[in-house]
Amino acid sequence: MEDLIAKAADLLARARNAIALTGAGISTESGIPDFRSPGGLWERVDPAEFSIDRFLQNPGRFWRIHLDMKRSGDFDLASAKPNPAHFALARMEELEILKCVITQNVDNLHQRAGSTEVVEFHGNLLRAACMKCRSLEPIEDVEERLLQGTEETPRCKKCGGVVKPDAVFFGEAIPSKAMAVSQVQTQRCDVLLVVGSSLQVFPAAQIPITAKMKSPAAKVVEINRDPSALHREVTDILLLGSAGEILQRLLRAVEDRIADRML
What we know:
Number of helices: 10
Distance between the termini: 27 Å
CATH superfamily of the largest domain: TPP-binding domain
Largest sheet: 6 strands, parallel
CATH class of the largest domain: Alpha Beta
Shape: elongated
Number of domains: 2
Oligomer: single chain
Strand order of the largest sheet: 3-2-1-7-8-9
CATH topology of the largest domain: Rossmann fold
CATH architecture of the largest domain: 3-Layer(aba) Sandwich
Number of strands: 9
């Protein structure tokens, strides 16, 4: 493992355009369950409840399920805190090693850890958006109205449109800005950190493939508890274990190399 971490640190220290792609595995250490693994959220909640068609048929039903999940603790994002993996990536950005984080997660933990260049590929479940005028508000404000019984189906305070969590549901397209920025960053990158992503969900799983196609010299460093679905095709360095532990060790190695250059 030490040899692999040293190789990854050398790549990052020399990188001109390093970026990260993060998935559910980076946030499980913050107590947020992933979706597809054994014991994951989809074993307790029907994934169809997160489809845009089901939501449009009965928005009030979705919001009741949302409150039930929050009360049960199955998916309470508001109480989660960033873990060492999030802080390590934020520090790499501060060191100007990492240009951006493209995240499949909807939990806002990268921003809370201090990362500023974050592409929310699947949106953010701590915000709510009006489906008519696109006005945003904290999701806790919507939850409060529901708990007070003033609304069964939340409505926009500006235009009266139906309010939906500002996350990508099944059947919805990736937000155009997130897609465009991700494509530009991927085509430029020379090192891609894949952290906590199974690389099973497209189009996010296309990112390491695109990085390799656009620049055969680009290197993919994968940090996962288990190898991703694409590790044989795209991964150059595979680091298996806790994202928090490995990223902290990797950060220290990168900082050592930066310090050596300054001597």
